[in-house]
Amino acid sequence: MLLSVEHLDKSYKTGRRSSTQVLHDISLSVNQGDALGLVGESGSGKSTIAKCMLRLIRPEQGRIVYDGIDVVNARGADFRRFRREVQMVFQDPYGSLNPRMSVGELIGEGLLVHKLAANAAARRERVAEMMQMVGLTPADMDRYPRSFSGGQRQRIAIARALVIGPRILVCDEPVAALDVSVQAQVINLLQDLQRQLNLAIVFVAHDLAVVRHLCESIVVLHKGRIVETGDRDAIFDAPQDAYTRALIAAVPTPDPQAARAHRARRRQSPATQA
Known about the structure:
Blueprint: E1 3-13, E2 19-30, E3 35-39, H1 46-53, E4 61-66, E5 69-70, H2 76-85, E6 86-89, H3 103-113, H4 120-133, H5 150-162, E7 168-172, H6 180-197, E8 200-205, H7 208-214, E9 217-222, E10 225-231, H8 232-237, H9 242-249, H10 256-268, H11 270-273
């Protein structure tokens, strides 16, 4: 197990003497090379879990353990290793990139912070390698974010996160602000990178169709609680919780008859019956 969240509680202050609990006893785990989807409607707590995982915010109760490191209380070398090996891609490809920095500076910033390149030439070489890996042209590294489309900016954000060699990528609704056709391109890119780099991915989304394409395991959240968790196919083919069934029912199906026939074949297959 690469990362585990154990009995996490989190509240936000709503006044001088009042607060609202947004996470209730959350426990989940992520293994190396796996993709875990956190799914739920707005306000379900999924983004709060992601921020706790990265120690951007602190929980009131519970533990987060990354590869033996107590994340909530980590200091010194342990905290620096955690910061390098667990990276985040944010939802907004426009607001998450500093408009005053060139693409090369944005992607290479982590190499400077973590002292991972011997000199400027080595840094540019690594940036060029990452740009190619995410489908961007290295010759464009001296351009600024305003010159790129939303999908290209999200590729820049992914390259920036991956350039320092993390083991876990936490993606907080990374395609929600993109057009549908561009969403598919970014999801396919993440899937390719996961396999190529043996990445663990925690993917936060409200769109079950997106999660189904990328994630092997799914955690369904409702009002700050886990209502269902399991293998992707089990969740979609035989959801146990009424809320999960409602989410699945809301997913548009291009060919409903074909989808029903597929589910019927799965139920009748020898592997299912065994």
